[in-house]
Amino acid sequence: MIGLIFLSTIECAQPTQVKFDHLTVEDGLTSGSINDIIQDSRGFMWFGTNSGLNRYDGYEVKFYNSISVGDEKSQSLFVTSLIEDGKNNIWFGTKSGGVSKLDRKTELFSHYYHDPEDSNSLSNQYVNDIYEDSQGIIWIGTEHGLNRFNPEDNTFTSYYHDPEDSASINDDRITVLHEYPTGTLWAGTRKGTLIRKIYQMMRLPILLMIILVQREREQI
């Protein structure tokens, strides 16, 4: 099974010829199914696969085993999403093992899980997307809730759909996250797209918050 295809163009007479180079399990990938790809600030390519986190330096593939011995919640190697944060750490979400962070200085993993007895834990084990905004805040979209990471105490603030609050997110299944240049956080859900300036609003008086939400709705 082909895991990755590299596209390059060759200068020649029209029409332009296209060449595909392949990186497969025979080259060291732990799986032929790739779910996300990023290039970090050092030039390394990172691949989130169905069977773990892989790093490619242009010559060989390195597998990062994120499973902690004796830790049942870290048993998922199915990587769904990847980012490099402003401190050059690699964050990745998994299908059933929450989210993990690879410290590039120590090469050690930190794992964050959902704990039903802890309201400040990750809202769900299934992570769909991870995003770092322009203020350095890490946002995590899961199958049940949107999460904001609080680095001071390694906790999460979670946001859910409230049928009695029209200003809440419109669905708990967050599929993708992105920040607009103006600072607006976009979140895709199973029921459409929503817009919230959550981290900006938390610092504003309630009346000003209402005015901003109303103006934002009028612009849509």
Draw up the topology in text.
Layout: E1 4-10, E2 17-23, E3 34-39, E4 45-49, E5 52-56, E6 61-64, E7 79-84, E8 90-94, E9 99-103, E10 108-112, E11 127-132, E12 138-142, E13 145-150, E14 155-159, E15 174-179, E16 185-189, E17 192-196, H1 198-201, H2 206-219
Can you summarize this structure?
The protein has 220 residues and is mainly beta.
What would the keywords be for this entry?
N-terminal domain of TfIIb, 220 residues, 17 strands, single chain, 4-stranded antiparallel beta sheet, mainly beta, globular
Question: What do these coordinates show?
Answer:
With 220 residues, the chain is mainly beta. The protein has a domain at 114-220: N-terminal domain of TfIIb, CATH 2.20.25. The chain is 8% helix and 42% strand. It contains two helices and 17 strands. It has helices spanning 198-201, 206-219; strands spanning 4-10, 17-23, 34-39, 45-49, 52-56, 61-64, 79-84, 90-94, 99-103, 108-112, 127-132, 138-142, 145-150, 155-159, 174-179, 185-189, 192-196. The strands form five sheets. Strands 3-4-5-6 form a four-stranded antiparallel beta sheet, with no helix packed on it. Strands 7-8-9-10 form a four-stranded antiparallel beta sheet, with no helix packed on it. Strand 13 (145-150) and strand 14 form a beta hairpin. It is globular and about 55 Å long. Mean pLDDT is 84; it is low at 199-215.
